[in-house]
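I am still learning, so would you mind making up any protein sequence you like and the tokens describing how it folds?
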Amino acid sequence: MSLADHLRELRYRMVLSLVVIGVGMIACAFFYQRIVEFLMQPYLVAQAQLAISNPDLEMTATINDVTQPFLFALQVVGLAGLIFTSPLWIYQVWAYIVPALVAQEKKYALAFMGAAIPLFLAGVAAAYWVLPQGIVVMMQFTPMGVDITNLIDISNFLRLLIVMMLVFGIGFLTPVFVVALNLIGILPASALKASRSYVIFGCFVFAAAATPGGDPFSMIVLGLTMTVLFLGSEYLCRINDRRRARKQAAGEIVPA
């Protein structure tokens, strides 16, 4: 394939992905009210928890501009369309790469995509589950003894939710990249073992830097989850290295 052919193929895949996401957004628009109720659930859960633990602390969701309801609707259907169509546009990435791969690499790429989609969605779900407790923790810093009401801008809340979902989704993809590098022979399990303490430290640094709002609960959950996933991927890499060593000892040809 020439460079021009590659560029045409890239354009085709990008346009197709945008069309798929656009169709997903239109479909989600018909369920706008239900999606809003679903996305606001973390806020409502946090509000209910605060009402029990700290009744004097008030928290109210607000819309502060005439155009904000329309912009909020676009954000909601955009997020919903992006998530619900993720298997399709992630497949477009694989479909663009796969023609350049040999048969064995295609198998690895397919396994990579098959693992990446559920892990990304699991990260999105984890963020949705963690956010209420994060809101409660941050709201506890409100000064008491004075008449203060926390006015939560609805667009800022949705932006926080989106960033949390993306950060957790990317964080959950850590083992996919680690195992993929091991399968193609770039990253042996021995190297992972030697750098384990540094990687674990890096997981918590990433969690502290990437988690919006800076609440310690979300940082700890993301850091611990990434650590567990890394240790699990290290174990899988160790198994694969042993399998590769046995095949090499038997004289079989193992692709790098």
The chain has eleven helices and two strands. The longest strand covers residues 58-62. The radius of gyration is 22 Å. The mean pLDDT is 80.
